[in-house]
Every structure is written in C-alpha cells, then in structure tokens.
Design a protein that fits this description.
The chain is of the alpha+beta class. It has four helices and five strands, in the order αααβββββα. The strands form two sheets. A three-stranded mixed sheet has the order 4-3-5, with no helix packed on it. Strands 1-2 form a two-stranded antiparallel ribbon. α1 crosses α2. The longest helix has 14 residues.
Amino acid sequence: MERKTRQRDAIRDAFEASGRPLSTQEAHALAAREVEGLGIATVYRNIRSLVEEGWLHTVELPGEPARYERAGLEHHHHFRCRLCERVFDIEGCPGALKSLLPRGFRLEGHEVLLYGICPDCARR
C-alpha cells in the first residue's frame, strides 16, 4: 500500500479533473499546478504504481507513448486530435463487428481509434 502524499494526490486529481486519457507529461503539467517543484520522475513512478494498483488503465495508441485513464470505465473508444495530439474518450461502440470477420474467425477483442480535429483546435 502506497502512503498518501501531496504529490500522489495531485496526480490523482489531474486524472479525475481531466476526464480524458493523459500522457505522463500532461499529468505532470496538471499536477504541478498543485505541487510546486513536482518532478517528472515522481509522476512516472506514481503512474506506474497507480496502474499496478488498478486505479489507472493504460491506453495504447499505435506508434505513440501510452496515455492513462481511470480504470473501471464503461467500454469505450478514443479520439485523437491530430493538431494538439490530445486524446478524448468517445462513448459507445460500433457493435456488430463479428459480421466483419472472415468465415471461421473468432473475435476476442477490438480497439477503435478515431482521428481528426478537436473543437478547441477547430476554433483556432
């Protein structure tokens, strides 16, 4: 069991407040607003620990560093803005994916990743 620290609380708060998957650097930037002098190594260490504890879940994107989000969320997919590179949750699932499989194949899982431009970047 990890002990409770201001740094760890700030990192957890960053994930809670963001409502979207965060990179380690994004989590660091948000948590550093609460804890002056917060080191990136502390963020990496705490994220690793929060994943091991099951509080965070790793979001893998092809060819990119991992993002992290709160564990235990409903099944969902992600949208990545190609301008700011932020990742957002999208609700729902296209479903009926088994109908796309070649005959004799068995589906065990899937990932859907949409790319485009987020509203913030579209306004710029």
